[in-house]
Amino acid sequence: MAIKQGTPSPGKPSGPAGLKMQDLVRATGVAKSTILHYLNGGLLPAPVKTSRNMAYYSPACVERITFIKIMQSKYRLSLGMIKKFLEACVCGPELEPLLQLRSFIFGEGDARELLDLGAFCRATGLTVPEVAEWQRAGLLLPLEPDRFDSEDLAIGRILKACGELGITPAEASFYSRLGREIVDHEMQLRDRLIQGLSLEDNATRTLEMTRGARALRPYIIDRIFQHRVLARKSIDGDE
Asked: Distance between terminal CA atoms of the chain?
């Protein structure tokens, strides 16, 4: 996605020549409550108030709200992080490496249909208590509370099959424990390698490291598993 330099700049409120709230809602497709949340969070310029119940918003708010929506839905950026970019006027080409990194890590957020807990249970065959148990074991890790994407759905179906085999969440929790340890080491390595780098270089180096990590994790684990299988010939029926 190409971000135009200065796209979300706040501009100056244009007084009565600006937009009423209903116009802003219509132009952006964003609910009034959400716009007020952005405003209270300092992500939008304050409107010009002509009376207690009448305020006019800068036309620049339309572009800024659109920018916020894209950063949230497609790149999974928090409002806090978006605010920092806006305050630092980081919205042009220098933002591209970070957006590429977010896309690589999370995928295309707006292309994923999120399921609520009930729909997730129906799609996987898991009960609500089973979902809670797998989550406590660290084996089901939705990015949003009770909102499940396609990856959660795939692993949920696998966890259902594991349960039917007699594998309990407690028995399988070592995956989460050791996974967290691996990521802890990866983050320590990243922190050392990005010291003193600009935002752009930080994101570029982190993207390169993430690509390497994603290649190494399954390779190492699968190779270790394959060597163990070869060492236990009884698994193949050769012993």
From this structure: 57
Residue 106 pLDDT exceeds 80: no
Rounded mean pLDDT of the chain?
A: 84
For residue 234, give Cα distances in angstroms to 162, 221, 223: 23, 21, 18
Token representation of residue 59: 């036309």
Q: Kindly tell me if the per-residue pLDDT of 71 is higher than 90.
A: no
Residue 83: name the closest of 100, 64, 97, 98 by CA. Answer: 64
Instruction: Output the six-digit token pair for 7.
Output: 């796209």
The answer to whether the predicted template modeling score (pTM) of the entire model surpasses 0.85 is no
State the sign of the Cα–Cα–Cα–Cα dihedral 172, 151, 131, 160: negative
Best CA proximity match to 79, nearest among 33, 34, 24, 12: 34
Helix, strand and coil content of the chain, in percent to the nearest 5, comes to 65, 5, 30
Q: Which residue has the tokens 């009960």?
A: 127
Both tokens assigned to 157? 């179906």
Between the alpha carbon of residue 223 and those of residues 184, 216, 228, 229, the distances in Å are 22, 10, 9, 10
